[in-house]
Specification:
InterPro entries: Glyco_trans_2-like, Nucleotide-diphossugar_trans. This is Glycosyltransferase 2-like domain-containing protein. It holds the Pfam family Glycos_transf_2. This protein is an all-alpha fold. About 50% of the residues lie in helices and about 0% in strands. The radius of gyration is 12 Å and the shape is globular. The chain starts with a helix and ends in a 13-residue tail after the last helix.
Length: about 55
Amino acid sequence: MADVKIIQTLSVMSILKKERIKVFHKENGGVSSARNLGIDNVQGEYFSFIDDY
């Protein structure tokens, strides 16, 4: 079921994705690892994390 949720989420994000919004997918590694990936790819002045819980 988790794989289905990931696929559905990525599908929605690809539709909503704008030029200024970047979506990254990372296989397991924990929240800190995923956030570090986001921080490493920041290109603008502002950034935000959007969690599903």
